[in-house]
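Bench log, entry 3. Co-assembly request; chain sequences pasted below exactly as received.
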Amino acid sequence: MRTSLGERLLDLAVSGFLWGFRILIVAAILIGTIASIRAGKYTSEQWIDFVVFGIAQGSIYALIALGYTMVYGILRMINFAHGDIFMTGAFGAYFLATWLNSTGFIDKNPLLGLLIPILFAMLVSAGIAMLVERIAYRPLRGAPRLVPLISAIGASFFLEYAFRGFFGPGKYAYPPIKALEGSWNILGVGILKVQVIVTIAAFVMMAILYSIVMYTKMGKAMRAVSENKDTAALMGIDINRIIVSTFAIGAAMAGAAGVLFSLVYRQIDFYMGFTPGIKAFTAAVLGGIGNIPGAMVGGIVLGIFESVGPSLFLEGLGIPRPYQLKDVIAFTMLVMILLFRPSGILGERLTTKKA
Amino acid sequence: MKKENFIWNAIKTGLLGGAVAIFICLIGMVEIFSKRDVIEKTITLGQFVLLATSVVAGFVASRRTLSLLGQNKPVPNLIAGLLAGLFTGILIALLVIFGNQVNLRAVFLNASPALYDLLTLKKGMGNIWVLPTAGAISGLIGAAYLLLPQILRGPINRSLLFVIFMALFSGLFRVVMINQGPGMEIAAKFLFGQSGLTLSGTIIFFIIVVAITMFWNNKGRDIQTSISRLPKNRQLSLRVLTFALIAYIALGLPLVSGPFIAQVIVTVVLFILMGLGLNITLGFAGLLDLGFVAFYAVGAYTVGLLTSYGQYGLQHIPFWVAVPIAVLVAMAFGAVLGLPVLGVRGDYLAIATLGFGEIVRLLAGSDFLAPYFGGPQGIIGIQKPCLGILGEFIKVDAPRICNGIELGKPQDIYYIAVASALLIAFVAWRLRESRLGRAWMAIREDEDVAEALGINLIQTKLLAYMLGAAFAGLGGAIFATLIGSIFATSMQLIVSINVVSLIIVGGMGSIPGVIVGAIALIGLPELLREISEFRFLLYGATLIVMMLAKPEGLWPSQATKRELHHADADNITAENLI
Amino acid sequence: MKRLFTLISLLVLASMVLAACGPGAAPTYECTDALGCVKIGPSEPVHIAYWGVLSGADASLGEDSKRGVEIAIDDKGGKLLNHDILLTTEDAGCVPEGGATAAAKLASDTSLVGLIGSSCSDETVGGIAAITNAGLTTISPSNTRPVLTDPARGPDYAGYARTAHSDAFQGKAVAEFAYNFLKVTKAATLHDGSAYAQALQQVFADEFKALGGEIVAQEAVAKDATDMKPVLTTISAAGPELLYYPVFVAVGGFVTAQIRDVAGLEDVKIIGSDGIFTADLLKGGGANSKGMYLSSPDFSAFTGDYAGFIAKHEAKYGGSTLSTFHAHAYDAANILFAALEKVAVVEDDGTIYVPRQALREAIFATKDFKGVTGTLSCSASGDCGAPVIAVYEIMNSDPASWNPTSADAPNPKKVYP
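Structure output for the full assembly:
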């Protein structure tokens, strides 16, 4: 294979550019960080606050990312409608919680008042996801990659605007759980109770999901299907059932995330799933697509970077109103990961089990 | 054995139809559509949609019965249709009954007394029998439709579609015709009511289309053969005449139709330009770029910054000079944004480019770069194109005087837009037939094989990004001058998604497909603004239906058609093996 | 073959003839107006249009103003100059492209005599050129961006006037409230990336500094942000006594709900503006909404019969008003009607001719017009409003209790001036 001088120069220019790009970003981050810390605008408590806020937000991303990563691992498809499944869970829980609240149930049983809406949201989300899978994805299983992607985009719009039709474009206020107001003092730092609950809930659910995938028969089947669909079918695994279960479980996680989101941020509306959906997919890629602990790690890392990043990097660089550019940080991080380590933080593959 | 099945089948279809009808009611479609007439004072769009649901239920039930029982028995088909329609109506009735007892409105905003009034034609619960009856009758019609002989079905299909089309766009036609003069005005008021068609108009359109279709079915073949038997120079002059006619209509359209239709066409053309660009990046080269709006933004902002007489105008040069610069800047951006992701494949590329698109939007609207790009206030005061000499730049916020013809109105920009679209379509066509085009298609099929065959991946991919960006940049440039101002909020992710959808719905890699896709996904919703409340809902449904029914697009290229049907063939073989 | 040729030529000829169909009998009134006249036949309605945001999250703003216009039409008995008044609407979606498309559609309709709109300033920026160039004039009830009625605004705005205040007044009023009434000296601002919020908080900042106060932080978030705590922590680090966030409901609700959870901001005073002067804020903000201040046009300073207007609103629509500019829309419609009555030429058979330029001039020449919002006079650059801004305090965080115009239990309640 002969490469002309021109082509070699082009290759050189491209690699040079890419290296320059990476160095520029890393340098910007370092300079910004040093300058911010030197400026001393924030106390160490405030820095911890930033991190804690990020962890809470990140846990929500992580739960949604779990669904993305599982579906992608098995079907190699970005389920664009997943963010909207998150929204359907939130709405389902909203109506149930409002009714429970009006009977005073939640005040008397805070724990149940938390768990019951979560379970209901999981059911609603799983149901809707299975419906979407049946109508919009299953007939397209053999098609080239773009076709189910467009179908997913269509499903996303359909869900969003169907819910807008049902419930209107306005915001709904999720009823707060009185027992969860206020903060706990953990290791000398005041952290909001809801944030702790959200983080713990996310980790618990991830652990449950991980155990299901690693230690149960269905989990094994899922890993087999994600490894090689046709071989798994030959081995006698019911592909349809596995795929539907994957969608259902991923959706359930997203539904639960919807409730947790509502508890922390209180306002829900029909469009709330759009941006978290994109962020969650970014988190899944960050952590390693197809990798369950990866989704968790990716989510938390993304959340922390979004929360701390503007103050830590951008302010030091002299950028005014840094929080407007919070998403820029998130996406730049994504591009960096794709350049530095495309398999993500924890690497790809749902299935790598130490033999 | 099968006899029971078909009844149960029909009932199931009816229940499904009922669920769909309830869905339509609860999302508010029936209420809002009821404000618009299909046939003035006779039937509203809301009623039409509900009846259509029963008709379709009846049709589907009838078809299933046909496949269960075979051809020669009309009666079971009709029964199936009747049952399906009946159950659809029953379910709607149940909604009303249930809604009158339980306050559904606490959950579903649209389950209101107003809705129930509409459904029972304002006569309350006593009228509830109307719903199942209307459902049954429409179901019967749907089933009967299946039994019509083919000769009648074709014309009736076309006429129905045409009538519905005319009804939806009646407002537009009416206004345009009224503007033409008293003769047309009388015709307009006869055919079109204030909202929807008049009864006479409906009948006239129906008859005309049926007549034309039947005429064409009978004589069409003959006409076609007689044309092909003409001597060559006559055929040529016929073609020339057809083109001249099309050109005449295209050139005269803005003069006749006014600024609104011109504006819509310009918007469609802008998306065609972007579509042609993405067609190169995605359609030819297979690079899934979801951040395409970034290049559109670059083109728009470049023109804005270079021609604006507001405070952010960097230079004050004429539009015609600014456009090529905008295209070049967009190309440069194409290279810059393409370089980091050269090695990234597939869906990761999608999300990475999505990120880029968002980064460009956020930076453009940020306070950080506001001194240069205007921030949230945007760039206003973009000078319109001038066919002539542009006057001196006097001071900030004073528009410059055009010594010549100023192309300020949408009708004027229409010409610029259409000319650009023709030019770019030509360029795209030549590119596809060129070596570069074939290199792109090779990359799309399999990058590694292409590289092994000696195609320089870097060069080819970069060129794909750059050329795609150039076309989008041109679109952005025209957009800037059309609206006269640019805001970062116009450059959302949804624009990129629209462009991807339209080239897939139109047919990926196909140039006529881009045009069809743009008209379908961009033009129609703009024209049907009364239905804008449900624009995205219908958009989403259309995408799903298109992918299920015709994934190769509305006007596919030959390659895509072969590809998709080839894939089907493969699947069947594999399954047969197991 | 020859037959086909003839057929096609005939079609071409026919279309040319139809297109060139000229006017019929000569009119008895000669229209000498520079922009042309609208001819309304004896049985035809007087066609006006309302354009604004009628769908989406901000629909309550557009819907609220539309109701003001509808009440004005009712007050006229549905008739003007013995013809029925026909009101049609166009949705512009609160974005410039939407405004441009709505304006293009309106500009195509030659039966329109005048417009009320738009709702959002962005819509006007996108659409005003088409409207002005079509010879139409529009009066906006709720655009508040200062540049729209700036004397140096350019010829595209020749057909634009408004009865709403300019944000230049609102920002100043809030600054005076903060400095003189609340007696704070350190303030911070937050905006949501919208042109409205960014401009308004800047006016506030400039005026506050001119009064002698100190702006310790000016921050911003993206419109779809949900987690406000990091940016609020940044603001807290600067030590403000007051936070002014003149944003829209999406961001406003989140900020109000989360601000007390941030260390250091438990006691800061919070002020918003008319973008969140709606019950939706209470839904999102929850218990924290109580004690929050909001600036808005001063309903009690309306010198006209505002109470009467509210009664009519209650009778026709039930429930309280949706947003803040209904009375401004009512006045805008009446100014349009008054100008129409002044310049229209009515023939014996009932045909009306409305000269467009004369109508435009009549609108801009409005002086001492007794409207509900005040005694209105239009400036040469289109400012017809009587801008009096008040600051209200939210007394009760229950969304059902929202009723700013109630006599005995107003929520929010006016506290300044």
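The CA atoms of residues 76 and 85 of chain C lie 9 Å apart. The interface with chain A takes residues 55-57, 59-60, 193, 218-222, 224-227, 229-231, 233-234, 236-238, 249-250, 253-254, 257-258, 261-263, 280, 283-284, 286, 399 of chain C (CB under 8 Å).
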